[in-house]
């Protein structure tokens, strides 16, 4: 039975992939995105063009707007009456949050507050929203699991994502809004963000230019393929958040609540050393990288690794795409899209 979805950040990496899958299974999707210039808007428009060229585009509509415009967002929600809202819009990027914190305060806090208000006033059945593995901060107790405290973010971006979780919980508590927060771990794949390592590395390697390898390559990331992320999001959309009937206020579980609010990791649970990721990408592109080793950057963390047992118990799914397979698909797409 098809449902009506509102997807924010619909021209983004994850957003566009999610919209495609929802349309293919027969849902009606309203997408919004402000198409800002944080990275090349032409890539965002290309993603939208791909959606609009699909046979299912008859069930799709797109509106260019910013979440910060609460009145416009509220009017759109009142017209479209979405049953499920998936909030993927945000000012992304850890390093950029050090240079331009104001953008994060507006998009990730004010904008998300407007999304919550839209859900409250329009009777949305379920809010699913993007959090991030960055909320775990400098925690080195791995793998990360949702019961761990996340009170020490090391970037403003991470702090805004932690704030989103607190805001969503409050709306669940006060207004009974079912809300599910998803902590994504280093998403990669075709149509990815140009500011992230796979795209930066591929561009430089194919141009014969050096790649910047931070912390001299001594980092690990739980690289998670885009198709696995989308599958996890859709399954969580279909499994509405509920209150934990066993919630103990004397020993509270950070991942659940007495309100209908849940938190889940979505990661591949196979952390990869950055140098190994570069080797796999070199093989997929058929070129060797010229490496420019750099020190650790402010806001970065040494490693990430996801415990996804809670997600698997909730929706019966865990990401599993091997890094070699995912990187090969990414490399093929990159060469085709950029004609290199």
Summarize the structure.
By secondary structure, the chain is α/β, with parallel strands linked by helices. Helix content is 42%, strand content 16%.
Please tell me about this protein's structure.
The protein is 42% helix and 16% strand. α1 links the parallel β1 and β2 (28-33). The model has no long low-confidence stretch (mean pLDDT 95). The chain has helices spanning 13-24, 41-52, 70-80, 94-99, 101-122, 156-175, 197-207, 226-238, 274-285, 309-315, 323-338, and strands at residues 4-8, 28-33, 60-64, 84-87, 126-132, 179-184, 187-188, 210-213, 220-221, 224-225, 261-266, 272-273, 290-293. It has 340 residues and is α/β, with parallel strands linked by helices. It starts with a strand and ends with a helix. It is globular, with a radius of gyration of 19 Å.
* Secondary-structure content class: alpha/beta
Average of the residue pLDDT scores: 95
Would you report the number of β strands?
Answer: 13
In percent terms, what proportion of residues is strand?
15-25%
**Helix content bin:** 40-55%
Strand order of the largest sheet: 3-2-1-4-5-6-11
Profile the largest sheet: 7 strands, parallel
Taken in chain order, the helices and strands follow as EHEHEHEHHEHEEHEEEHEEHEHH
Task: State Rg.
Answer: 19 Å
Shape: globular
* End-to-end separation: 43 Å
Number of helices: 11
Note poorly predicted spans.
none
């Amino acid at each position: 039975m098809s449902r009506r979805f509102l997807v924010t950040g619909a021209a983004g990496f994850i957003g566009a992939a999610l919209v495609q899958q929802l349309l293919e299974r027969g849902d009606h999707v309203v997408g919004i995105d402000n198409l800002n210039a944080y990275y090349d808007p032409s890539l965002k428009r290309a993603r939208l063009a791909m959606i609009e060229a699909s046979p299912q585009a008859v069930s799709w509509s797109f509106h260019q707007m910013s979440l910060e415009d609460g009145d416009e967002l509220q009017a759109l929600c009142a017209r479209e009456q979405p049953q499920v809202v998936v909030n993927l819009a945000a000012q992304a990027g850890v390093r950029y949050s050090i240079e331009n914190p104001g953008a994060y305060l507006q998009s990730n806090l004010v904008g998300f507050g407007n999304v919550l208000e839209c859900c409250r006033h329009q009777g949305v059945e379920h809010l699913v929203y993007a959090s991030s593995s960055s909320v775990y901060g400098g925690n080195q107790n791995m793998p990360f699991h949702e019961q761990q405290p996340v009170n020490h973010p090391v970037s403003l971006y991470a702090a805004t994502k932690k704030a989103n979780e607190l805001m969503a919980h409050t709306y669940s508590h006060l207004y009974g809004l079912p809300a599910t927060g998803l902590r994504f771990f280093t998403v990669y794949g075709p149509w990815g963000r140009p500011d992230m390592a796979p795209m930066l590395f591929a561009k430089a390697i194919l141009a014969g230019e050096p790649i910047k390898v931070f912390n001299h390559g001594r980092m690990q990331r739980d690289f998670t393929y885009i198709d696995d992320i989308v599958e996890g999001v859709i399954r969580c959309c279909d499994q509405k958040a509920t209150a934990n009937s066993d919630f103990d206020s004397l020993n509270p579980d950070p991942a659940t609540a007495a309100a209908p609010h849940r938190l889940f990791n979505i990661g591949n649970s196979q952390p990869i050393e950055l140098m190994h990721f570069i080797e796999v990408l070199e093989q997929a592109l058929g070129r060797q990288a010229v490496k420019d080793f750099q020190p650790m950057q402010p806001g970065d963390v040494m490693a990430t690794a996801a415990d996804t047992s809670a997600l698997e118990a909730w929706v019966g799914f865990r990401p599993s795409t091997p890094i070699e397979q995912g990187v090969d698909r990414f490399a093929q797409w990159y060469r085709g899209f950029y004609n290199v």
